[in-house]
Design brief:
The protein is of the alpha+beta class and 156 residues long. It has helices spanning 2-15, 40-51, 54-58, 68-75, 97-102; strands at 21-24, 32-33, 77-81, 88-92, 107-113, 116-122, 128-133, 137-139, 152-155. Strand 5 and strand 6 (116-122) form a beta hairpin.
């Protein structure tokens, strides 16, 4: 009986539309790493399995498996999220956590993928935190994040 009530409650929450408003790029000083980085042994093991597939050798993506360093650059990542959990990023484990936490937003971009809108906050150095929503959004201003200008998107 309790499980049915929980499912019903979740269904009701999901039925409500996303509220309009501003979505601001998060302050990375409070961002947290939520997944561990793969060990060197794990990367080498998965490189052997992933790149041994002949389809990868003769397919369109010839760069990933060309060298172990290329594969490592692509797969040596961990998931991070903003303090409120609204924004997520897969960041290189070669980046120092202190550098990630010190990064400031440079640009906000909005893109569409099917029914979802992706609000992406670019902090430079391949640090991009993204938020996905069903609301229609657009960057505030030209999307550039300068001192005194908001780094956010407006959503309907």
């Amino acid at each position: 009986m309790k499980s049915r009530l929980i499912v019903l409650a979740l269904g009701c929450v999901a039925a409500f539309p996303v509220l309009a408003g501003e979505i601001a790029c998060p302050d990375l000083a409070t961002a947290v790493q939520v997944a561990t980085c793969p060990s060197e042994e794990e990367l080498k093991y998965t490189y052997t399995g992933y790149c041994a597939d002949n389809a990868r050798l003769y397919g369109k993506d010839k760069d990933t498996c060309a060298t172990y360093e290329n594969y490592r650059k692509l797969k040596n990542v961990a998931m991070w999220e903003s303090a409120d959990g609204a924004f997520h990023a897969y960041l290189s484990c070669d980046l120092a956590p202190a550098a990630i936490k010190a990064a400031k937003p440079r640009r906000v971009e909005v893109g569409k993928a099917g029914k979802l809108t992706r609000v992406a906050c670019d902090y430079g150095d391949d640090i991009v935190f993204a938020h996905r929503t069903r609301a229609a959004c657009k960057p505030v201003g030209d999307g550039a994040c300068a001192a005194g200008k908001p780094c956010q998107a407006s959503c309907d």
